[in-house]
Design a protein that fits this description.
This protein is α+β, with helices and mostly antiparallel strands. It is built from four helices and 14 strands. Strand 9 and strand 10 form a beta hairpin.
Length: 319
């Protein structure tokens, strides 16, 4: 009786295996391409979110700011502002491009601000100075603070009036605004050559021991540095080779953005900030994803202080 051979031959099995292998490789290539595409999209979306947050944060700080640099600068007099009782010019303070200034009642003199850990030593030496890599904005401390312990709360029953530092606590003997200082710094990324980080630190204003206003806990508002975004690759200054992120505008002068304040006495005139960033990726992306080629995302904002009383009280210093 003849035997039936219904099974596959070895040759047929080999051919089937080869075909399945080719199809599997093609399928894996599609999966890998899809994975890389999704990673790029995730990277771009994450970076866009970070850029949007930075834009809103810096814009809010500058619009609410009392001054760029340190509001407690050098003491001078305004010849046009005379005390009717003494007939003498009333002393006033002209802002400083560096923080802290020697007249700063909280951090001035021999009391530099707390040194944030995480910033390279060369960038935290006192004072910080307005430059392409450093933005200093001082925000008024309002009476709607109701801080308790280590948390910040608001007192909705208050109107939000600015608080002040009494003249008795000022080296200049002049009553001054109470402000907290926000510092944005562009520093080299220690983990990625040619890339930079944008970091933020806050230095609290005067607490109740000085102002008598117990609703504000200065320690709650002193912290940092926080890394806001990584992967910054430009714009790069062709002369210095460093990022050219921040510039400053004085409407009283040419209105052209400058890289630094030409004379510290003119700081009060500079009420505008330009911020340019070119970012390749944000820090939330994992190590194996960050090497995927992604088109840099650019950001530019121009924002002005809404209330810079120094400029209106001191007038325009003569060059």
């Amino acid at each position: 009786m003849a035997r039936r051979a219904d099974g596959n031959t070895i040759m047929e099995a080999l051919v089937t295996t080869v075909i399945m292998g080719i199809l599997s490789m093609a399928f894996m290539a599609v999966l890998l391409m899809n994975y890389k595409t999704n990673a790029k999209l995730d990277n771009m979306q994450d970076t866009l979110n970070a850029v949007r947050a930075i834009k809103e944060r810096i814009s809010k700080d500058v619009r609410e700011g009392r001054s760029l640099g340190d509001v407690y600068g050098t003491q001078t007099t305004d010849p046009a502002n005379v005390d009717p009782l003494t007939g003498l010019p009333i002393p006033l303070i002209v802002g400083s491009a560096g923080f802290p200034s020697s007249n700063d009642p909280v951090y001035g003199g021999n009391s530099p601000p707390p040194q944030p850990t995480g910033w390279p030593a060369a960038t935290v030496s006192s004072p910080y100075t307005l430059s392409n890599q450093c933005l200093i904005v001082q925000i008024p401390v309002l009476d709607d603070h109701a801080d308790t312990s280590t948390q910040h709360f608001r007192d909705l029953n208050q109107l939000g009036w600015p608080t002040q530092i009494p003249a008795s606590f000022s080296s200049s003997g002049i009553e001054q605004d109470n402000v907290e200082t926000h510092v944005y710094r562009v520093v080299a990324d220690p983990s990625n050559a040619g890339e930079y980080l944008l970091q933020f630190a806050s230095f609290g204003g005067a607490g109740g021991a000085i102002t008598g206003f117990t609703g504000y806990n200065s320690s709650v508002h002193t912290f940092g540095p926080q890394t806001l975004v990584s992967g910054i690759i430009g714009p790069i200054d062709s002369v210095t080779g460093l990022p050219k992120v921040f510039q400053f505008i004085s409407p009283k002068r040419s209105g052209t953005p400058v890289d630094s304040i030409p004379n510290p006495s003119y700081t009060a005139e500079y009420t505008g900030v330009v911020c340019n960033l070119e970012i390749r990726r944000h820090q939330d992306m994992s190590t194996h994803q960050k090497n995927f080629s992604v088109t840099p995302i650019g950001m530019k904002i121009e924002v002005f202080l809404r209330n810079n009383a120094l400029a209106t009280s001191a007038g325009a210093p003569s060059q």
